[in-house]
TrEMBL record:
Keywords: Iron, Iron-sulfur, Metal-binding, Pyridoxal phosphate, Transferase. GO terms for molecular function: cysteine desulfurase activity; iron-sulfur cluster binding; metal ion binding. Residues 4-368 form the Aminotransferase class V domain. The keyword Glycoprotein does not apply. Signal peptide: none annotated. It comes from Halanaerobium congolense. The lineage of its organism: Bacteria, Bacillati, Bacillota, Clostridia, Halanaerobiales. This is cysteine desulfurase. PROSITE patterns: AA_TRANSFER_CLASS_5 (PS00595). It catalyses: (sulfur carrier)-H + L-cysteine = (sulfur carrier)-SH + L-alanine. Its EC number is 2.8.1.7. Coiled coil: none annotated. Its cofactor is pyridoxal 5'-phosphate. It comes from the Bacteria.
Amino acid sequence: MKNIYLDHAATTPAAEEVIEAMKPFYNEIYANPASSHFPGQKAAAALEDARESVAELIGAKKAEEIVFTAGGTEADNLALKGAAMANSEEGKHIITTAVEHHAVLKSCEYLEKHLGFEITQLGVDQEGFVNPQELKDNIRNDTILISVMAANNEIGTIQPIKELAAVARENNIIFHTDAVQIAGQLKIDVNDMNVDLLSLSAHKFNGPKGIGALFVRKGIELVPQISGGSQERKRRAGTANLTAAVGMGKAAEIVSTNLDKKITKLCSLQDYFIKELFSNFDEIKLNGPREQRLPANVNISFKNLDAESILFNLSLNNIAAAAGSACASGSLSVSHVLKEIGLKKEYAKSAVRFSLGFSNTKEEIDYVVQKLKEIIERLKSLQ
């Protein structure tokens, strides 16, 4: 059996069309988009075309609301730190959740430690959902920013962002969502969602690594986090990564065209995988909700086993999966997400995340289940 890749939540392969679209921008259309000469103007036009494609992917009305970044982590940092600093005279209270990506949590820690902001972390229920009423109850007169991820990168919980963002809007509070995981899995419409800031990363939807974007609704002020030139309408200094931006734009076009087909296939594969797991194993637990879940996410625990041992054995059988998120890979401690949902110890240390892609097949799932049966049986015999 060839290598089976079930770690698409960590990264996805760049689509062939994306690679082809990028090639001319290495040595043909290579001028700096900020230059005024003709080659520079040609490069600038390509950059703006890419910006337009990303805007269309998320339903932004204006392409200038898209700020290119070096990835989702930088987009989160710019959103949190930039908005907080720009609005600090109005208040210094930020609300987020305890299950956010570390790019959000660490940005909040920075604001708290170095700039005196107060951070409230909302808890979640056993399936990872935020309670909108709890959000309402924690809003203060000095609350200036709320950040809740659109869907969890570990357990796949899809948050009620539209409802949560409506609470923020009713109270005239800026709302940010880390939407890195939902791009390529769910339809995104920033206006329907009521969000003011939204983070994306191209390599999560078959684009290149090293490029991301932050949607910044018109009228939202940010303090730039990278100082220098006036690129990105003075919101992010540095020579534009034109080649990667073109790749992200092409990936956005592909997603926009094929999203319904992709969602249908992912949902079918996910449903089949989960049913096969529960048909073949005792003492397992699906972490996160069965409904309102990312269609690519299957996070499963095997009672009283160790995730690292399972992953090592899967790897020996050419199967790639993950324990928790890629950002926490290598850590033997239980992830902050699993702790927050109250997963019992006998299940928490054995959580394995399988994340599906459009290229995966039922035959691959059958192979994975078969190998898992052999692995789990062997590991249990060693106890």
